[in-house]
Amino acid sequence: MGLILSVARSAFWGMHLTLLPGHQGSDAMGSDGLQCDLVAALAVAGDALRAPGQVLVAMADSGAIIGPKEVPQLGAIESSLQLLSAIERRRSDEGQEAGVMVNAGNSQSLTASELGVSQQAVSARLQAGYWYESRRAAYWLAHEIQTFIGTQAKRRA
């Protein structure tokens, strides 16, 4: 999730997240089915640049790419990721820097000391950038994606 949000923050890239249920584990890495799904995902990856928020979420299924129209749960994942990406893009560099330090385990006071600002300034940066709210949403979304993949993998088994 961190990589996806970092890409979103750059605003130079589109993000196409293709979920691959049924391809977990080392035994699946060399399978023809996985290769077929990866080729299909690559073929439509550029569509993310034209998608709302430059974010596209899909699922590969036997070489076919399935989107939110066919699987509504993908729409919820995609729209949540679009919203998180929009927040990431709008956060100031100062807010991002403070958030990364707090996320690494620093207190707001220690972060303030290292940045040479007051603790209130760090708090304001985090609030203005919706740091805590976006982290909670990102953790929730990562869990939802994992649950979705697990559910889809069970259906295929």
Break the fold down into its secondary structure elements and pairings.
Blueprint: H1 2-10, E1 15-19, H2 32-44, E2 55-61, E3 64-66, H3 72-90, H4 93-103, H5 108-115, H6 119-128, H7 131-156
Parallel strand pairs: 1-2
Antiparallel strand pairs: 2-3
Task: Give your account of this protein's structure.
This protein is mainly alpha-helical and about 160 residues long. The chain has seven helices and three strands, in the order αβαββααααα. The chain has helices at about 1-10, 30-45, 70-90, 95-105, 110-115, 120-130, 130-155, and strands at about 15-20, 55-60, 65.
How would you sum up this structure in a few lines?
With 157 residues, the chain is mainly α.
Keywords:
mainly alpha; 157 residues; 3 strands; 61% helix; DNA-binding protein; 3-stranded mixed β-sheet; elongated
- Please provide the count of β strands: 3
User: Taking strands numbered 1, 2, ... along the chain, how are they ordered across the largest sheet?
Assistant: 1-2-3
Rough shape?
Answer: elongated
Helix content: 55-70%
Protein name: DNA-binding protein
